[in-house]
Specification:
14 helices; 6-stranded antiparallel β-sheet; 5-stranded mixed β-sheet
Length: about 1500
């Protein structure tokens, strides 16, 4: 028994040991992270002792856990102790002290370990109080859930730890082993739960047990986000929307937040479209912060009209809105100029298309690529259409490049312009202007470095230094920081009070006085940088980040040494030291003493004897300039002062920073009429460069003006606000903290005007001639010459083999001046491509598009090639001159003439017409009779003996319009009788020249003309005017937009000029008006002129072709000496009247002659007009046509023949006839004739071929007759039909779609239909061929296309093309997307409905409506039934279903015949019967009435 009892004891001991080991292992894992607090680096405690102590500590640290884990009896506990001692292990006794009462430091004995160190934190009282309240609330909120869970685990632990003495089988032992493993898992889960839920456990970071989940809801609904968070102390939860804190109390109507038992929720009520966002919950406690995100998407029901099938579809989509936003910025602000103290506004109108309701783009303003934030200096406004930026009280800091950027979901658009801020007027002449850009750097507890930038204008003398002022925030008192002006643009300000806020400003000083103050700096707080870093970025929406530290183990210890002591700045005014704080600082913080030593001595002197500094920065003043010093630092606290740091190297007091070197000489380049682009080489080896200032001066003056008042760091700047046409020079100076560099040498003078750019690309490179080893090329000059004349062209070539092209090579190294080139030394039968580049004074343009692949082989063409080099001059409202060069290839014989064609630019190929009929042997032609404001295209063809060659490349379109300010060449005869041609141009550019030509060939022979040009005026003087000078003189101005003019000197003109020259030498009678001619009524002709003055003795001699004519039947003369009017009348012009009419005046010695030449086409045209006017006058004496017979087509497609008549009487007879057959009053056609207010109409109505014919209207009475004919055959009939087709085509409606059971119908309605109308249908721009599935036709006034059994292949664009007499009218329908889906769905529905209707169950016949039958007879009725599938059949009587039995025999045979048989009917069988049939497509009932009668009763009733 004793042995058996010992075995049981040993077994129980082993079981208890296993349980204890399990608990110890769990607690070791739980507290493993605390090991750094339990042991120091010098501890010699064994690992075994530490583990044991950890278990004991865990037992006492969490007493409630121990009770829940092992609610052992005292006997069991003694047994446990006995077992542990039996094993020979050290007994670990429980510490009776509670956790927070344990001592911090423990003696290092063999079996004793360092106690647990309680984590401490530093924070303000409000934060501590909040955390304590949160701790108490968490204990209260545990409630029933926590108690129930704790009791559950207690019960499980108690049951697991009970010791039972029993005999076990192997099977039971295995089962218990499995149970112990399960117990281990349970204990681990319980431990994790206690970590998260037990307030007595150690603190740990928050953790999301259940994270919020994203949701998608409809607009107007309510959505709720849930999460469960664990952590101790209990975390605080904050909800954010797109990184913006949600204040549920302030917006209770929108948001509701709840927090119960570690479960938290956010409810968003009445969701709208703008609630779509990313929401996240942030959980924070003393251990840290975690966040979890969820996305809410609010969907909106479609509002407004649905997009039609013809509405344009976007080419891309916004992920959020499903559209592509196109942004356009208009009404843009330009380069702006302001003055300090003023307010300026910049604005643009922004158009975002398409417009999405409630959607607004993001509008951001930038200055020098830095986003602007609204402040008291910067105000932004967005009205939904216009973005405005207002700069209040301008300062030079506001100068820069301003950019408006509009961000949408599809991208962004931006616009930029520069804003210049000029200095305000100074109060005292000669003082400098205010410094700028004051900033605070390296801010510490009692120290800050203030930096600024020097102004652009120093005043009447150089700046001597700067004064720095400071002011505490909230105060208006400014205190000067330095008594002696500092030269450097940075200054260390010391003596600040920790925790206070400061602002700074700077003033400049020169011999004339002190400048105005700069703009104040941003407010800064004097505090430790680490505290500022903590304060700068709170992780949660409350007052700041809580700072946690552990109890300082080095309290009462002298701090360590400072490290890395360096001199950061050294000037003759001060020296700045910087160092790193010691690693061992102590509990109270560290302060510093600074010591200095003159080089060469060992004597160290403390600088700040009165008060140690708190910042690891210090500025030393009052050092002897030129002496060398070394420095060191000592750290101190209440425990004492540290050893001195390593001393710095010797530092000589003086200016270390050098002035910037002189930048490179600026190069000025023309930009616009008010700006110049300036570039220069930057200063070399410059430190802390602030930027560059640019000055400008008008040549001839000594006044220099700043171009910028804020330094720019780039070496390129656009100087705006210059005077157009003025000549400027520029200079640049660099600036850094040490001061200004010397100004550069002046740039070359530049005239402010629009810049000259490289030309545009040449176009139309083509082949005009090919021989075995050379090819002749031509091309079109660039559309824009870049503001300078084209100086030549360079041609490149490459070979082409198949689809592979070789490299480009130059053909000519010397630029060619014409637009043609002969490419020589080519290889026969090789394929080449060519490209051309134009050159002007600005450089070489980009290459033209490559020509087509051209094969080098000899042409066999007999006709000449195409003329080349077409261009125009002298473009006016109604005329212009076209010039060209002869073709490079003459053909079989030389070129003997040219033809010129033109057409309006808007006309098609059929619009070309010849300018002249006879061949033109010149290489130019003046075209007259053009329409003002119309654009024309020209081409030329060359001719030889064989024939006419191909047309040249098209020239144009050329707009027939006189340029504003255009002047013409005028001929002048001076007082000395010198004849000259004068031309003036007010738009001369740099490099523009006057080029005179005769017959459009440049004048090289100066023996006939002397040309004098000065400024914008040129004069061509005839040396010895003679017939050799006859011709067309033209003058063109190079480097302009085609300014030119011409003057044709004819023999008569030369004679007139010679006469005028003679008149200037000799007295002549001045004419107020030269002889003119005008056409009068009846075709009479009046010749007249008027002299300015004459005496009563003046005599007039009339001559025709130098023959004297006198008054008679043909001529009537009149001369009024008082008015100087001379007149001669002719009743008509005859063929013999072609010639020159002359009035010769003699008034004493003075003579005067005026002539009018009427010959050639001009005379014949005038004669025709005269005869026509006379005939018209005769015709209008009787009834006549004001408007001749024509036609019109009404909107109802009725054809009307109409004309307008005049001068009719009641007696006037009107005769209508068709095909020479008069339409009598009793004819049916007479009813179609009407006359209203002199308008005659013949309403043909709906025209057909039988209406074709020649229609004639005759007016007749005693005064005469007039006739008008309209030939409505052939071309006339076709013209009417074309007009009818036009009316019909334009009346067609947009295509509509209709779904039927067979398919889809596309249709368009027209006003009327004519059988000759041609129309067709296209699918995806391909003509649709008629088939069984696709049919088109006309029904009434509807044009349709049937698509039977549509499929996916039938989707796409459908076009109906209706002939309108010209090109045709197209109606387009896009059968895709929603239109296809709706139509196809309706088709399927109708098709299914038709199938159901065809196959539904129904009674098709066989049953009467009423059956009267004698009582006792048998009733037998059969109904015909139809349905697919075969229907179910039933019979009902009085709404009750009948069942087949002996009395009612119901049958249904062959799926078609349903019968009912009633034997020996009685009165009870009377009633309403119905045969009911039913299948899946429907139900139908065939009702009938059965009436049973008794003949005897009927006879009795009759009696």
């Amino acid at each position: 028994m004793a042995a058996k009892s010992g075995e049981v004891r040993i077994k129980k001991r082993k079981q208890l040991q296993k349980h204890v080991q399990l608990v110890q292992q769990h607690q070791e894992q739980k507290h493993q992270f605390e090991s750094s607090f339990y042991m120091s680096s010098k501890s010699s405690v064994s690992k075994q002792t530490f583990t044991s102590h950890t278990a004991s500590q865990a037992s006492h640290t969490d007493l409630s856990s121990l009770r829940s884990l092992s609610n052992l009896t005292s006997k069991t506990q003694k047994c446990l102790k006995c077992c542990l001692e039996t094993e020979g292990e050290a007994v670990v006794r429980l510490n009776p002290l509670p956790r927070r009462a344990q001592r911090t430091y423990l003696a290092m004995e063999d079996k004793e370990v360092i106690g647990y160190v309680v984590p401490l934190f530093r924070a303000n009282h409000e934060v501590v109080r909040g955390l304590a309240e949160a701790h108490e609330e968490s204990q209260t909120e545990e409630g029933i859930q926590y108690v129930a869970m704790r009791n559950l685990f207690k019960r499980e632990a108690r049951e697991a730890m009970e010791v039972r003495v029993e005999k076990k089988s192997r099977t039971k032992h295995v089962r218990e082993s499995a149970e112990r493993v399960e117990l281990g898992k349970t204990m681990e889960e319980w431990s994790e739960f206690r970590k998260k839920m037990n307030p007595d456990s150690l603190t740990h970071t928050p953790e999301f047990i259940v994270k919020p989940r994203g949701q998608t809801v409809w607009e107007g609904k309510t959505v709720k986000l849930h999460c469960t968070v664990a952590g101790w102390p209990k975390p605080r939860i904050a909800w954010y929307k797109n990184n913006v804190l949600i204040d549920a109390k302030a917006h209770s109507e929108k948001y509701t937040t709840e927090s119960n038992y570690n479960m938290h929720s956010l409810e968003i009520k009445n969701c709208d479209f703008f609630d779509t966002a990313q929401y996240y919950a942030s959980a924070l406690n003393v251990k840290g912060e975690v966040s979890s995100y969820a996305t809410i998407v609010v969907k909106r029901f479609l509002e407004g009209d649905e997009a039609g099938p013809l509405d344009p579809k976007p080419h891309g989509y916004s992920a959020e809105h499903g559209v592509t936003f196109n942004t356009t910025i208009i009404d843009k602000f330009g380069v702006a100029f302001g003055r300090e103290g003023e307010t300026i506004s910049l604005g643009c109108t922004v158009i975002v298309y398409p417009t999405v309701r409630k959607y607004q783009p993001e509008v951001v303003w930038y200055r020098d690529s830095v986003p602007l934030k609204p402040s008291k200096w910067v105000h932004t406004h967005w009205s939904g259409e216009r973005a405005t930026l207002t700069l209040v009280h301008l300062n030079k800091e506001d100068e820069g490049m301003y950019t408006l950027r509009v961000n949408t979901k599809s991208g962004f658009d931006s616009y930029s312009a520069y804003v210049f801020v000029r200095d305000a007027e100074v109060d005292i002449e000669g003082v400098p202007v205010a410094p700028l850009d004051v900033r605070c750097q390296d801010v510490n507890k009692d120290y800050v470095v203030v930096t600024w930038k020097q102004p652009a204008v120093e005043g009447s003398s150089s700046i001597l230094g700067y004064f720095i002022d400071r002011c505490e925030a909230g105060s208006l008192h400014w205190a000067q920081c330095n008594d002696i002006p500092v030269k450097y643009a940075r200054y260390p300000v010391t003596g600040l009070v920790e925790g206070r806020s400061y602002q700074f400003r700077v003033r400049a000083l020169n011999k004339a006085g002190v400048s105005r103050s700069s703009r104040v700096s941003e407010t800064v707080v004097a505090m430790d940088p680490s505290d500022r870093a903590h304060r700068a970025g709170p992780l949660a929406p409350w007052t700041g980040m809580i700072k946690f530290t552990e109890e300082d183990s080095t309290a009462g210890v002298v701090p360590g040494e400072a490290t890395d002591v360096v001199v950061t700045e050294a000037t003759k005014s001060y020296v700045v030291l910087a160092w790193k704080p010691p690693a061992q600082r102590g509990h109270e913080g560290v302060m510093y003493y600074i010591e200095k030593c003159i080089s060469g001595t060992d004597t160290w002197q403390r600088v700040n004897t009165g008060m140690p500094v708190k910042s690891p920065r210090f500025a030393l003043f009052d050092l002897a300039e030129g002496n060398s010093y070394s420095f060191r630092v000592r750290c101190c606290n209440s425990a004492g002062t540290s050893e001195a740091s390593q001393s710095t190297a010797d530092t000589t007091v003086g200016d270390k920073m050098d002035l910037p070197s002189v930048p490179g000489v600026p190069v000025a380049i023309r930009n616009t009429s008010t700006s110049v682009v300036l570039s220069w080489a930057g200063s070399k080896d410059v430190k802390h460069l602030a930027g560059y200032y640019i000055d400008c001066s008008v040549v001839g003056t000594e006044e220099w003006m700043p171009c910028n008042n804020k330094p720019v760091k780039q070496t390129r700047f656009v100087c705006h606000g210059l005077i157009s046409g003025a000549n400027y020079v520029f200079r640049v100076k660099a600036v850094n903290a040490a001061g200004y560099s010397q100004s550069t040498a002046n740039s070359d003078a530049v005239v402010v005007m629009d810049a000259v750019a490289v030309p545009a690309k040449a176009t139309g490179v083509r082949l005009v001639e090919a021989v075995k080893d050379y090819m002749a090329l031509t091309w079109d000059a660039p559309a824009h010459d870049g503001g300078a004349a084209i100086r030549g062209y360079f041609i490149d070539y490459r070979t082409v083999k198949g689809s592979a092209a070789g490299k480009w090579h130059e053909l000519n190294h010397q630029a060619v001046t014409t637009t043609t080139y002969k490419a020589e030394n080519l290889k026969e039968n090789v394929i080449y491509q060519f490209q051309v580049r134009a050159m002007n004074m600005a450089g070489v343009s980009r290459a033209s598009l490559a020509s087509a692949a051209l094969e080098c082989k000899e042409w066999t063409i007999t006709v000449p090639g195409v003329p080349v080099g077409l261009h125009v001059q002298e473009v006016r409202d109604t005329s212009l001159v076209v010039l060209w060069e002869p073709p490079l290839f003459d053909g079989r014989s030389p070129v003997n003439g040219y033809y010129l064609d033109l057409k309006e630019a808007s006309a098609g190929a059929e619009g070309w017409r010849a300018v002249h009929e006879k061949v033109n042997k010149k290489k130019y032609m003046k075209i007259t009779g053009l329409k003002s404001g119309t654009a024309y295209v020209f081409r030329a063809r060359a001719q030889n003996i064989v024939g006419v060659g191909k047309a040249s490349a098209n020239l144009g379109p050329i707009l027939a319009q006189t340029r504003p300010g255009t002047t013409e060449i005028h001929v002048d005869v001076d007082d000395n009788g010198v004849i000259s041609m004068i031309f003036e141009c007010s738009e001369m550019n740099e490099g523009s020249e006057f080029v005179w030509s005769k017959n459009y060939t440049a004048i090289t022979d100066t023996s006939r003309l002397t040309i004098v040009s000065e400024g914008g005026r040129t004069r061509a003087i005839f040396n010895t005017p003679s017939l050799d000078d006859l011709g067309t003189y033209s003058c063109a101005v190079t480097n302009t937009e085609g300014i030119s003019s011409s003057y044709t000197l004819t023999e008569e003109g030369l004679k007139r000029l010679l006469d005028l020259s003679h008149e200037h030498k000799f007295p002549v009678i001045p004419f107020k008006n030269e002889m003119s001619m005008e056409l009068l009524e009846k075709g009479r002709v009046r010749f007249w002129c008027q002299v300015e003055k004459c005496t009563s003795a003046c005599e007039v001699e009339y001559a025709f072709n130098n023959a004297i004519i006198t008054q008679g039947t043909k001529y009537t003369m009149n001369f009024d000496a008082s008015s100087g009017l001379i007149e001669m009348y002719m009743d008509s012009l005859e063929v013999t009247d072609e010639g020159t009419f002359t009035f010769k005046l003699v008034d004493g010695k003075a003579k005067g002659t005026t002539s009018l030449v009427m010959i050639g086409d001009e005379f014949r045209e005038l004669q025709k007009k005269s005869e026509f006017e006379r005939a018209e006058w005769v015709r209008k004496q009787g009834p006549h046509f004001v408007e001749y017979l024509g036609f019109t087509v009404t909107d109802e497609c009725d054809v009307l023949l109409k004309c307008k008549i005049g001068n009719i009487k009641t007696e006037t007879e009107i005769f209508w006839s068709k095909d020479s057959i008069e339409i009598a009053e009793d004819d049916e056609e007479a009813a179609k004739i009407e006359m209203t207010d002199g308008n005659l109409t013949f309403n043909i109505g709906k025209i057909s071929k039988r209406d074709a014919g020649v229609y004639e209207v005759l007016l007749k009475d005693e005064r005469g007759q007039d006739k008008s004919i309209f030939n409505m055959t052939d071309a006339g009939y076709q013209a009417v039909m074309n007009e009818l087709f036009r009316v019909i085509a334009n009346s067609s409606t947009e295509i509509q779609i209709i779904s039927t059971e067979h398919g889809l119908i596309l249709s368009s309605n027209i006003t009327c239909y004519n059988e000759e109308l041609r129309f067709g249908w296209l699918h995806k721009d391909a003509k649709i061929a008629a088939s069984e599935r696709l049919k088109s036709g006309v029904t009434g006034e509807q044009l349709w296309l049937h698509i039977n059994e549509p499929t996916e292949k039938d989707k796409g664009k459908y076009t109906m093309d209706i002939f309108d007499g010209k090109d045709g009218v197209k109606r387009v329908f896009e059968l895709s997307g929603k239109a296809w889906e709706e139509a196809f769905e309706e088709f399927q529905r109708l098709k299914a409905a038709a199938i159901a209707e065809r196959n539904r169950a129904r009674v098709v016949g066989g049953l009467p409506d009423v059956v009267a039958i004698q009582e006792g007879k048998s009733l037998n009725l059969t109904g015909n039934v139809w349905g697919e599938p075969v229907p179910e059949v039933s019979w009902v009587k009085n709404d009750r279903e009948l069942v087949s039995d002996d009395r009612y025999k119901l049958k249904f045979e062959h799926g078609k015949f349903a019968s009912i048989n009633i034997t020996a009917v009685t009165r009870a069988d009377s009633g309403k019967y119905a045969l009911v049939v039913k299948n899946k497509y429907g139900t139908e009932a065939g009702a009938f009435t059965v009436s049973v009668y008794n003949p005897d009763e009927e006879e009795h009733k009759t009696d």
